[in-house]
Amino acid sequence: MTTFLTNLRELKARRGLTTADLSEKSGIPVGTLNKLLAGIVEDPKLSTAQALAAALGSSLGALIGEASDTPAADDERKLLHDYRASDAYGKALVRTVAEMESGRVADTGETADERGIRVTQTIDEGAVITLPLYLSPVSAGPGAVLENGPRETIDVRASYTSEQADFALRVSGRSMEPRFKNGDIILVHQQPSVLFGELGVFIADDEGYFKRFMGDRLHSLNPEVPDIPLSRFNTVICCGKVVGHMKKKS
Fold it and tell me: Which residue has the higher pLDDT, 94 or 166?
């Protein structure tokens, strides 16, 4: 889920506005708002974002994620400054580390306080989300993966991560070790593209890949497995972004 979408939903709920109310206050058609709120349109026009920010009583920066209604701590401002000063490689590296850490927290249910002491997150053990788990995920093309492929359902513990997922796939092979092992399950948010450095599921010439997108190539986390240049394929389709991970039960 994008920062813009998260902020839009939170501000709308905080203001107690219905979609019709927001449409009337902003002048944005209800149909357009429904697409934005559903995540179908992730990057609104500047004029649309400005109108929504005004209607929600927020700054444009806070709405699109460049600023926050909650003041940032000194270390957060320093991190943002350093990130913006980095080149494309440095920014990708920062996102990779952040993604790995958020994945670790999601996988273990633990975080750490400022002293480095691990703190278990409070999770409602009774809350679950049911997701489709595709059995032969990416061997027959994207249509089969997301619509007609053989599948079963799994219950996943409800969390911020699992609530973003639209479907699940089982990892096959060792190319994404050590973090993802054969038999693990990845949670995927269906979307047509991913950013540089993000983990995604791709169909390339009817073959399925779970890799890190690096612009002109698909990268394996396992250093023993070579990257795959995208230039070798005629067509490459992104099926979604990997947002979570469930380890194979021993």
Answer: 166
